Backbone:
């Protein structure tokens, strides 16, 4: 009985480790994975106007979260109520496609720069 419990424990730990490794690769926190996810979002929104995959939903949610955070802290000046999921995903895809050497950088930094470049705040003269 003790040996079977030991083997069950070993199998459980091996499965958990393998799942963690796979998840870590899929959800890497860099521009490469974000570009893939946002390209998926753009395709989904063009074809069906619905986010149909986990990757496309991740992009839309992540970009929206960063966008709202930047807006809250006054780091970007978005036109009122006109930046939707599709437009935001396109902005990120364009920025990442234009800067392939930066795809290793953290997602937050890349989305922040994409949005502040697209919607800079005008400083008073």
Residues:
């Amino acid at each position: 009985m003790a040996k079977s419990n030991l083997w069950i424990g070993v199998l459980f730990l091996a499965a958990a480790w393998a799942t963690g490794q796979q998840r870590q690769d899929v959800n890497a926190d860099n521009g490469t994975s974000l570009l893939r996810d946002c390209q998926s979002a753009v395709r989904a929104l063009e074809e069906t106007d619905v986010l149909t995959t986990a990757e496309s939903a991740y992009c839309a949610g992540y970009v929206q979260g960063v966008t709202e955070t930047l807006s809250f802290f006054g780091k970007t000046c978005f036109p009122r109520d006109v930046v939707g999921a599709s437009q935001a995903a396109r902005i990120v895809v364009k920025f990442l496609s234009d800067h392939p050497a930066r795809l290793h950088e953290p997602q937050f930094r890349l989305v922040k720069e994409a949005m502040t470049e697209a919607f800079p705040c005008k400083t008073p003269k």
